[in-house]
Amino acid sequence: MELPNTHFRINIKVQQEHLDDVNHVNNVIYVQWMENIARQHWNTYVSPELNEQVLWMIKRHEIDYINQAFLGDELEMHTWTGDYTNVTWKRHYEITRIADNKKIISAASIWIPLDRKTQRPRRIDNSLLLMFA
Fold first, then answer.
1. What pLDDT, on the 0 to 100 scale, is given for residue 133?
2. What is the pLDDT of residue 4?
3. How would you classify residue 29: left for phi > 0, otherwise alpha for psi between -120 and 50, otherwise beta?
4. What's the pLDDT score for residue 7?
């Protein structure tokens, strides 16, 4: 089942510390950016009560590297939620270079909500569904 998606966007400027030995953004940095934007998206919409009950864990990442990003590039990253099951939720990501609108990566992650107290998987119920509907 797919929900109406709520998109969330941020801009990123590539810094020296983002680069690898061949002077383009390191693959590990993309994964960090994916986790960061997902958390920012969550924190933008979550109620304090729900945030006290739920934390999220990654089950899987998939990344398609389409073009390279370099020092000084200004990038737009956006994320949105997709299909979900009882205990997993797919999140999509895209990064494009603002100057030429070239897609840099297309990616997806599977996230699992955890009960903050027990750290065991939590069902995706209406309180979570309403977050991104």
1. 62
2. 43
3. alpha
4. 85
How would CATH label the architecture of 8-129?
Answer: Roll (3.10)
| Residue at token pair 């000084």 | 72
Q: Which residues pair with 54 in a beta bridge?
A: 115
The pair of three-digit structure tokens given for residue 72, joined into one six-digit string? 């000084």
How far CA 43 is from CA of 8, 39, 51, in Å, comes to 11, 6, 8
d(CA 108, CA 96): 15
Beta strands in the chain (DSSP E): 8-13, 54-65, 74-84, 89-97, 103-115
Q: For residue 76, is pLDDT > 90?
A: yes
Query: In 10 A of CB 11, how many CB atoms?
Result: 9
pLDDT number for residue 3: 44
